[in-house]
Design brief:
Jelly Rolls, alpha+beta, 116 residues
Length: 116
Amino acid sequence: MKLRPLRVKLAQRYADRLCGVGLGVTWREFDALCLPRCRAVHTLGLARPIDVVFVSDDAVIVEIRPRVPPWRIVIARVSNAVDTWEFPADSCQAHRVTCGSSIEAMLSQMTPIANA
């Protein structure tokens, strides 16, 4: 086994932001989705729950919404959230992610292992 880089999709274009991880996009294509300057997301069209993480301007996790089911709209409850990250369901629990930790720390814990 060897480590492979974590694949983060940066959703800057309107189409990428609209589709997110739904509408034919799968987690096989990337490990995390970053939506910069975004305080609300939807799970319309998803087949499975996702973990939603809201991050402040200084890259600190300020809110975690685990296992958001399909067909929901999620809006940040905290005023200092500026970016949103989406992860496969249970990622936050599996990596013991808490509010107050940095998104970089979370990503470094999540480095996936690929078969050699």
